[in-house]
Each structure stands twice: as C-alpha cells, then as structure tokens.
Design a protein that fits this description.
InterPro entries: Homeodomain-like_sf, HTH-type_TetR-like_transc_reg, HTH_TetR, Tet_transcr_reg_TetR-rel_C_sf, TetR_C. There is one protein chain. This protein has 203 residues and is mostly helical. The chain folds into 2 domains: 11-71, Orthogonal Bundle (Arc Repressor Mutant, subunit A), CATH 1.10.10; 83-192, Orthogonal Bundle (Tetracycline Repressor, domain 2). It has helices at 11-31, 38-45, 49-56, 59-71, 83-100, 102-111, 116-142, 153-170, 179-192. The chain starts with 10 loop residues before the first helix and ends in an 11-residue tail after the last helix.
Length: 203
C-alpha cells in the first residue's frame, strides 16, 4: 500500500479533507485508534464513505494524512534570545499539545505502531520538526552558549524534550508546569559540560 499522494487540494476538495481530518481527530480522541473506522469517520464528517475510500483507501491512509497535515502548519521554533529560554518555550508548547487533548495525542502515537503508513508519516514529521529546531542550537552556538566545536543538535533537542513525552505519554502523569523549564535547564547544563560535543562529552 502506498502513502496518500502529496497534494494540496483547494476548493471543495480542501473542505472535504478538512471535514474528514477533523472527524479522524474526534474519533481518535473518543475511541482511540482501535475504534477508528472509515465508516465512522465518514459518518462524523458528513460525507459518503466511498469518498473516503477513494481518497484515503483505509484507516492507515487517514492516519498518514492526518499526521502529514500537522507538518503543513506554518510553525517556527521559539526565539527568546537564549538557549534555555528557547528550549523552555519549546517544551511549553509540547506540554500544551499533550495536555489540551491528551487522549488524541496518545491515540495518534499508539496508532503509528499499528499502521505502517502512519509510522512512516510520523517519522517524516519528527525528522522535519527536529530539522526545523536545529536553528535553536545554531543560534546558541553563535552566541557562545555552547562549547567550541560541533554540537550534536539532534541529541541536545531530544534530551531537552524527551522528559515531556516520558511524563505525559508513558507515565500518564498529571501536567507539571515546572517540567518544561526544568528539562530545558538540565539539557543546557549538560550541553555546557560538553555532553553533546562531537567528542561525545568530557573526559
């Protein structure tokens, strides 16, 4: 099965896509990926199921397009003037996304383990987001906030953001408003000590 074609529909096609993807979000939030069906999505979206089958083919196609739609949003990483501030702001955005509609976020992540199409789309989305956020590390290096030499930007970003996903998704813990700043501070301290330098850390 191939992924849905990369296209940016307009007019009625765009409206149908928006209705269907809104329905997928609602279905995931209410019943998780286990209860997601083409028929249920079509009914909630108010479109004929043949329309959904023709464009998305199956549940995997719906999930893949939903994840791809997230990557179409015009988003830029925070620019606060410091590495710690940027990472804190980024973590605050992540925490909000995981707590405003937590059942949807968890369901979508779980779905990627059951759909090859969704898994591929999610990998592409993560790759794009990390690539976008590498500018945060580049700016910090330019300000002299990081040790001389190359810094593993991806490793630093993962270290700063991972605690949010661990607490919210894996542990299902209550939101901690202090966690974004605390996780960012820990990553900055590790980076300053050379943990993410090209040499793999200090001796």
């Amino acid at each position: 099965m191939t992924d849905p074609p990369d296209r940016r529909p307009g007019g009625r096609t765009a409206r149908v896509r928006a209705q269907v993807l809104d329905a997928v979000r609602a279905e995931l939030a209410e019943g998780g990926h286990e209860g997601l069906t083409v028929e249920g999505v079509a009914t909630r979206a108010g479109v004929h199921r043949t329309t959904v089958y023709r464009r998305w083919r199956d549940v995997g196609g719906l999930l893949a397009d939903l994840i791809s739609a997230a990557g179409e949003i015009d988003w830029q990483p925070p620019d606060t003037g410091s590495l710690r501030g940027d990472l804190t702001a980024l973590n605050e955005e992540i925490l909000e996304s995981l707590t405003v509609r937590p059942s949807f976020a968890v369901a979508l992540m779980a779905a990627s383990f059951h759909s090859e199409q969704a898994a591929r789309a999610q990998t592409r989305l993560w790759e794009d987001r990390y690539a976008q956020c590498e500018v945060v590390v580049a700016r910090a290096a330019g300000r002299g906030e990081l040790p001389p030499g190359d810094t593993d930007a991806r490793g630093l970003l993962i270290a700063a953001t991972a605690p949010l996903y661990h607490a919210s998704v894996l542990m299902r813990a209550d939101p901690d408003p202090r966690l974004p700043a605390r996780a960012a501070a820990a990553a900055v301290l590790a980076a300053a000590a050379g943990a993410f330098s090209a040499g793999g850390g200090t001796a």
